[in-house]
Amino acid sequence: MTLHHPIARLGDLTRDEVADAAAHSVLVLPIGAVEQHGPHLPLRTDTLLAETVATAAVEACSGTVPAVLAPVMPYGNSEHHLFAGAASLRPATLAAVLGDLVRSLHTTGFQRFFLVNGHGGNDETVRLVSKSIVTELPVAVGTVNYWQAGSSAEPVPDGADVPGHAGWWETSLVLAVRPELVRTENAPSEPLGARGLYSYEPVPGLNVQMRGEWARSGGTTDPAAAADPGAGRRMLNERTAGVAEALTRFHELTREQQTR
Amino acid sequence: MTLHHPIARLGDLTRDEVADAAAHSVLVLPIGAVEQHGPHLPLRTDTLLAETVATAAVEACSGTVPAVLAPVMPYGNSEHHLFAGAASLRPATLAAVLGDLVRSLHTTGFQRFFLVNGHGGNDETVRLVSKSIVTELPVAVGTVNYWQAGSSAEPVPDGADVPGHAGWWETSLVLAVRPELVRTENAPSEPLGARGLYSYEPVPGLNVQMRGEWARSGGTTDPAAAADPGAGRRMLNERTAGVAEALTRFHELTREQQTR
Amino acid sequence: MTLHHPIARLGDLTRDEVADAAAHSVLVLPIGAVEQHGPHLPLRTDTLLAETVATAAVEACSGTVPAVLAPVMPYGNSEHHLFAGAASLRPATLAAVLGDLVRSLHTTGFQRFFLVNGHGGNDETVRLVSKSIVTELPVAVGTVNYWQAGSSAEPVPDGADVPGHAGWWETSLVLAVRPELVRTENAPSEPLGARGLYSYEPVPGLNVQMRGEWARSGGTTDPAAAADPGAGRRMLNERTAGVAEALTRFHELTREQQTR
Amino acid sequence: MTLHHPIARLGDLTRDEVADAAAHSVLVLPIGAVEQHGPHLPLRTDTLLAETVATAAVEACSGTVPAVLAPVMPYGNSEHHLFAGAASLRPATLAAVLGDLVRSLHTTGFQRFFLVNGHGGNDETVRLVSKSIVTELPVAVGTVNYWQAGSSAEPVPDGADVPGHAGWWETSLVLAVRPELVRTENAPSEPLGARGLYSYEPVPGLNVQMRGEWARSGGTTDPAAAADPGAGRRMLNERTAGVAEALTRFHELTREQQTR
Amino acid sequence: MTLHHPIARLGDLTRDEVADAAAHSVLVLPIGAVEQHGPHLPLRTDTLLAETVATAAVEACSGTVPAVLAPVMPYGNSEHHLFAGAASLRPATLAAVLGDLVRSLHTTGFQRFFLVNGHGGNDETVRLVSKSIVTELPVAVGTVNYWQAGSSAEPVPDGADVPGHAGWWETSLVLAVRPELVRTENAPSEPLGARGLYSYEPVPGLNVQMRGEWARSGGTTDPAAAADPGAGRRMLNERTAGVAEALTRFHELTREQQTR
Amino acid sequence: MTLHHPIARLGDLTRDEVADAAAHSVLVLPIGAVEQHGPHLPLRTDTLLAETVATAAVEACSGTVPAVLAPVMPYGNSEHHLFAGAASLRPATLAAVLGDLVRSLHTTGFQRFFLVNGHGGNDETVRLVSKSIVTELPVAVGTVNYWQAGSSAEPVPDGADVPGHAGWWETSLVLAVRPELVRTENAPSEPLGARGLYSYEPVPGLNVQMRGEWARSGGTTDPAAAADPGAGRRMLNERTAGVAEALTRFHELTREQQTR
């Protein structure tokens, strides 16, 4: 395969290049969301960060992992953010999208898929599709929420909720990659509402969802005024390293065992 | 509400008793699975344990949490166990079941639901339904995988994978509650196959699903021969205490905030 | 197959025992409902009776019919009872559940299925699934509403509607098997409302469904105060004999003809 | 309402005539099937007979029941006849069609629906839709399988299975209404195969479906050579009278009770 | 194949005649709609015209194209006409109907399908199904909106919108084939409302749909008072000739290339 | 609304900016596809061109039409291209995506939507969704296939099929915007196969779909070797002008009439 670019992008390849690459390559698919991120962050925050990390991780592995990067799926499941604005797919729709993409790309020749998710609301669907599709097709699917990959040495300020939503952490990351998209003057210095039940385990193992919690919490988990581009850059690098390590490990684990 | 039994069971109540209880009670629904559990455990292991823990937790809270225990949903998503036998619902079917139950019980008057899950294959669906249903109905939904509730002081032997599948942990638990259902003579003393990629995070944040892994691993995660009913009893008590604590906390958190 | 129990229960078997039994056994699945049964009967009346009859019928045939009894599906289609309380699956959901169970158990090795239904609201769905699934899979499916099996010599009091809903008949049956679940003091001695159009054919061949009829009729078809545990026991025995005869005949009819 | 025709046909009315008629009229919908009917009957036998009986019944009631006759739905669920030829809707598709028709006609103003079914394969779906739709909309739905309406004095010859499929009964009826469509020279004088398990209750209350039974039985239930147009005419009159009586009774029962 | 009729009608054939004809014949399926057509035309206008043109086209080709004419599907997607009355299938239901019919008739032996559509609201669904089904099955599907077939020399009066909806064109056609169904005294001589955005491309390539436009336009596109049966007859002949030409061409194009 | 960018991009706005803009703005959504485009064009050709034209059109109207540009939906319905490679959504999935996006953005406050489609395989679905959604929600939806907007003065060389697929036209356009993505050395100078039945109307009004036609035609409609960036630039400008005119006209037509 002769690629015209340092990393292979599915959208930029021709059909013959794809045919050459598919059987031995890992198809990397970033998945984002378009939804309210407080008064200061852009709606596409999750899409931006998923795509940024996935792209950087593919680049970081370019010498060792044959990967093909698919266009980011910009829309995810954000029904819970409709109180304040989102372009949202219902979970069944998102599941159909991911299933169809894997199915058609498998027909195209790919056998290994690596999904980089950028949004908590997509988490269950991404994992469910990965479990289901392998009962239907002879494929391997790796999934990672970029914010959970790797480990971090960056100190977390008091009151910050990592990763949280539209708080110190995400704001720092967007400041690092697209500072002009952050309305720093609007970044909250205080919590916008009560702590959302959706955002933590009140006791170990317990998750609570309740109607209206996102609105009650003001749609952010923690103040963002202290966000810092330097910390953002370092944390982004840490997560990118984690995703790159995950991609590498996925490649190694599935290269031999992969069946047809 | 005058109940005929120490704990209120939805199936045993009359319609008027339900009408009296619904608005202020938490509806507790255990969810299991019927699937292969190695050569020594019965297919309904997950259903048995989910029901056992949920019932004991409701009892433990009977003085403090007004709860109504629904009949265990005995079937779950076990598509990945069909290589060796299961009665399985596809994820979309299980999601429809859970959604319909919450929806109809909400029409009946309940506003708060607490789902006690007994099977890893149900995890994403249970959580997805809990997130989705609160965007549709004015309800609160707590979810807990019983094996993740609370904490444990019980020492774990070398080679055991907790909770795992059909290994030391689950076998000990079934030995504690229904020893006659365990074919101890068949309990494996060695791993039945390679370690399944489904059973661990190869690096932090990475989940891997691959066609055929359950078969390659022999369908169990770790040897069961060292399983012990005493340890099982203690661990079951720990988990029950954890679920009871989660139920209590859920009740406290949603009692006031619950909206109509 | 060496079973640990007098009747083989799917949930109690190991995967190897299931593998041994599946090809030549009939899988028996009881199906119930959780719904209002007047002011005196418990919500799980239909589940209780379907499970009781199915279990007794399997026992009665244990020497002649190789059967494996699956866990009762406790929830059915009770949308029409939501006026007064139910945990209900919509018809499409129930159809998906039954289809998935047959499909996965067929993958597991079973070729013959016998569905014992305990609830009128499930009737069409149960029969529809049985007709459909044989156009998809090489299986045989027998279905029986337990109240229609066999014949009865028990005299029916004036005003009783057999089987009816929550009236003399069902109340007698529950009194026979779980008397402590009947609030006899609440058992109506008069009709609770107008005769429901849903409950009879006004002229031969005509069925009428009308919005609100279940509420107008008070949710029961006939008075229950005269219910009698002795009659209940005898009628239950008659129905059990009928279901056992049906199971035996199903086994004989499908044993030879069954194709793969 | 001034109609241009002796009976009101939905398809022939204008929107204003429909608007005038809808609130107080019964919408009558015949439902058929296009499927193999042995070597001698046309594929549209069920559609023809459903439409014939429904039309005659509406005419018979024209002085007493305000009815509007909708175009016959010519296609039904015939998946079990695909071994020898059919134009078939899957059950879920047929259910969607019937639900959509009732829903849209209710928006148009109708509140009462009377479904005249001509095909056994549609029976469960027709009844299921009638039960479901009244939990969704304030409507009344009457359903009748035309062959079960009324009573019959016509003697049945030995070996005939009434109504059966493509046997003495249906052949007599088609001979009565469209004799030129019957290939009498091909009408079987002997059974074409084994008696189909689908065609009878082996013991009371038992229904059996088995893969391949329709093919094994040759696709007809009983010989047709003795079919007789005179008997067909008399039996058709009997069924028409039964359907007319059902329609009249439905009108009386739902006229007053109908709610909005 | 010996047919009893000059043109082969699927509904009139026996299973053996269908079996003989299927492999080499084109299955012709007309599709209509039942919906408001102004104050003067009957609801089944589209069904009537699609069936009339399809039948005449099959007759016109009877010497050259082996065709089998299926019963018209009388109901289509008319959700946009519910403001004034329709019996409508939602698009997904109509797609399921068409897909099921092609699928079952392909199982029956047909490989080539020709859909004659009579209603604008069905257009996208008909074409979508034709595109989709060939990715699933080895079939060829031709589709034609009868009003777009062939060319016309008939002069169009000022203010007429061809084909429009319930205006000069459709009224002329119904006058030609079933004049007794037209309430000529009600035929509008002036537009009934504003020009509907749905009815034209405001600029090349732009289609606009807006809530309420059909009501605002009065449900017709142009006045019908000048409708003329002679013009209707000529235009119907032109369209029939166009559909016959399309059927002939479809037969020629797919006869050789058709694969199994 | 104070925007940070010359054109308002949904993804770049904050929730408050969206809230300010939604009610009076047109939401512009480009829709593409990722599929084989011959041996010389990249898979994302349609996504690239839809996004390019939509963006340029929004810019061109920036003084007159308040528009908000959503992230391009990169994946479309390409099932017919799977013979040679695609990342494809099935039509029902694509319809769900578009319906969900309009629905959630309507909840967010938008009332007017303008869909710019870049792929023929999406055409029916885009139009169907636009027709359906206005029967559900009080919105206006404009749709345009960018290649059909406006008019063109550019001469078309012999043998070119405009717009075609991966031929002279599309290749010229990609050469104009992203020349480095075109493998000009692979651009076919001769047709790669027989003319595809999918690509033209054999007679007026006839569309033909046949299994395997895309493969037989080699997946392109016409030679691309003569493609020219200058012509591409001019044609792109013409189409952009057409889409801008369509957007302007849509804004004018729906501004006043828009209902809530």
The CATH superfamily of chain A is known as: Creatininase
Pick out the low-confidence regions of chain A. 1-5
Distance between the termini of chain A: 22 Å
Query: Can you name the CATH architecture of chain A?
Result: 3-Layer(aba) Sandwich
Overall outline of chain A: globular
Please describe what this structure looks like:
The first copy, chain A, has 260 residues and is an alpha/beta fold. The first copy, chain A, has a single domain (9-253), classed as Rossmann fold, CATH 3.40.50.10310. Chain A contains 7 helices and 8 strands. Chain A has helices at 15-22, 45-60, 91-108, 123-136, 168-177, 213-216, 229-257, and strands at residues 8-9, 26-31, 34-35, 67-69, 86-87, 112-117, 140-145, 206-210. In chain A, the strands form 2 sheets. A 5-stranded parallel β-sheet of chain A has the order 1-4-2-6-7, with helices on both faces. The first copy, chain A, has a two-stranded antiparallel sheet with strand order 3-5. In chain A, α4 links the parallel β6 and β7 (140-145). In chain A, α2 packs across α7, α3 (91-108) crosses α4 (123-136) and α5 crosses α7 (229-257). The two termini of chain A are 22 Å apart. The interface between B and C is large, with 55 and 55 residues.
